[in-house]
Amino acid sequence: MVQHIPQDFSGLEHLATAVILLDDAHCIVYANPSAEILFAVSANQIAHNHISNVFLNCDALQIAIENALKNHSPYREHELIITTMRHHSQAVTCTVTPLEMPDAALMLEFQQMDQQLRIAREERMLIQQQANSELLRNLAHEIRNPLGGLRGAAQLLEHELPQPNLREYTQVIIKEADRLHSLMDRLLVPHRVPKYEPTNIHEVLERVRSLLLAESPHNIKVIRDYDTSLPELIGDREKLIQAVLNIARNAVQAMQAYHTPDAEIILRTRAERQVTLAKKRYRVAIKLQIIDNGPGIPPDIHDKIFYPLVSGREGGSGLGLALAQTFVTQHHGMIECESQPGRTCFTILLPVESSVMRHVITQ
Prior knowledge:
Layout: E1 18-22, E2 28-31, H1 33-39, H2 43-46, H3 51-54, H4 59-71, E3 75-83, E4 89-98, E5 106-112, H5 113-160, H6 167-188, E6 197-199, H7 201-215, E7 221-225, E8 233-235, H8 237-257, E9 264-277, E10 280-292, H9 320-330, E11 334-340, E12 343-351, H10 355-362
Parallel strand pairs: 7-9
Antiparallel strand pairs: 1-2, 1-5, 3-4, 4-5, 6-8, 9-10, 10-12, 11-12
């Protein structure tokens, strides 16, 4: 039996928040897909059941409902333990809101506690990434102009030197100025407007794989673990290649520096369903993992690896992961890292559908 969704409730279908609506008798009249997933129940199975028969022995929920009705205003209960009729338990925050609708008298909104923590972490990362991007852009612009003058002065000085052997010093200045200029260009690359188009994630990974093998053909093993049934996503192919390549190169360099025996990188793809990214719910996302068996990320910089100019490798620029995060964010995605000696896993979540991206394409 397919659940009938009244027109008044249709806007709740795509919310990331789990929503259940009750009638005057506190019986369930509607549960959105997020509620079905959170509580592992079907909306049709719990429809017309009293809330106490669905969520067992939950006095705190009943008190929240009574307080909301008594005060005629929303009431929130934090750290609520919900146990369903199938004995499936969840720690949630619940907001009870009285409604004035023909078919519903109360709206219960549930947010899983770990989901709230993840959303808060996403928000912090986004704010930090935006601040980092602005800082780097301003820094790059401020440095590029003096570099041009420095290089030009060194070239003029080179022509005036009486002894040719002295020109090696001016060449050092010129080469270092060029190196810094190239670095500044890399800082400004993320601000190029992305070119969104249908993109096959496995074509992206195959390109990364071929580059890794070309750079270190005998020292690294790159293993494919693909779900070839994944659909295309809307993205900038070159930026996605660069994001994955930056992560994989870091892994290769770390394993080479520590002479990791049987060094390998696994490129893995899977489908992830009903994913919340930046407070928006997506029915399908691509989960891409880059896994290596290297030494792991030093604990003292683990929480800072996406900050610019932070590197665990001597001589590293500290820009690779900052740029990777920027490119993933431009695709409305998220990047996370778990690391311990012998296993480091970067997980990238990329939504398959985005109305914003599709709008860009059609312009």
